[in-house]
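Before relying on records like the one below, remember that each one covers exactly one chain. Contacts with other chains, cofactors or solvent are not represented anywhere in the record.
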Amino acid sequence: MKDIAKILPVEGYRVLLRGSLPFDYTTSLTHLYQPLIGIHAVSLYQTLLNELDFQRNTVFQTHHTLMNYMDLQLNDIYRARLKLEGIGLLKTYQQQSNDHRAYTYELQCVFSPVEFFADDMLTQLLYHHIGQDKFEMLQEHFQLQTNEKGTNITAAFNEVFQTFQPHTTGLDITAGNQQAEENIPSIDFSWMEQMLASRMIPVKKVLTTANKRLIPQMMELYDLAEYEVEKAVLWALTDENTLDPKEFKEACHDLFQSKHQQAAIRLTEKTEQAGVEPEYQPTTKEEQLILKLEKISPKQLLEDLSNGGQASGQDLKMIREVMTTQGLPSPVMNVLIHYVLLQSDMKLSKAYMETIASHWSRANLKTAREAMAFAKNQKSQSQQREKKRQNYRKPASKEVVPDWFKERKKKKPEVPQHNPDTEQNNEEFAALLREFKNGK
């Protein structure tokens, strides 16, 4: 990866700090963050932090100065910067002036050890990076420091003061916790709400504010599909129908290991950084459809195909059961839904869907592209078998044909041959795309 082309030594930078650092931030950096992002990223954070004392107004320093301070090549500094951005410790802003570029590096406050262990995703990552023994040692050490202070009996704001026209019901004192959550994608919980309601499980007891933060974090960390997260939630429910966070994390980890053959959970650099390369733009209608089916959820697909109407609970339940039973990823399930709707006059038949799903599951399809190609191939083979049966049943002609008619047929100009199977497939996929666009 040619990182050196992304930034030049002569380009300037300045540093800002958002918020105030906790007194034990250095411990967090060396013992909690460093195992995740490496020594170069931690060194860059500390160097930029100390640069604040040397800045004069808004004068920009060059990256060549930073290279000298850290004794690192610029591509190593660039990679360290990306790691800080990814973990939530740095925001980068670019300014363009004539032919020159300059950057503003806004440092985000490091979590204190207590805040770090309150973040589910960071703690799970640390656990997998340093192992159970070291993790439990650190956790016990910082919990012991907290417990030594005794029970927290501090009075809350509304217990001491009152106002005539209160504008808020409370104060937001956890703004710092947002730094690691900004990179976690938000998800639509309506699919899970419907699943819980269908099983007579109280939704509000399961989908609490804390759990709504935990679920997408584990979904991202362990690369789980919606139906897999659903399994993990059901496994982790207590007798009182509440979600046990520890059991839920273990269930997510078990699902990951079963899917990835005991692979280790570790932070690794992507070979192509997200946002650096231009996004792929499909050039054909079929490519457009495949890209959409890769990205959206089955629920979104149903709603788009019904002109934005709400997907019925019965259809969602049917799809959820098929996905859970056969273990189909969402992109493959989307192709299956499209295929069944096309073959069944835009109606979902559970029996028909289950038959195809079991076949596709045995074929181990993982992407929408694979499912699309597999469906086209199966359809083509089916049509060829049907033609053979028709030719076999067709009676031999006993009609006497004159010689002059045979000669005329021989002189008939040749017409380019068309493959009806290919034409029909193309028409079907064009129809699918029209349905999808009309739904939007």
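Residues 329 and 366 are 6 Å apart (CA to CA).
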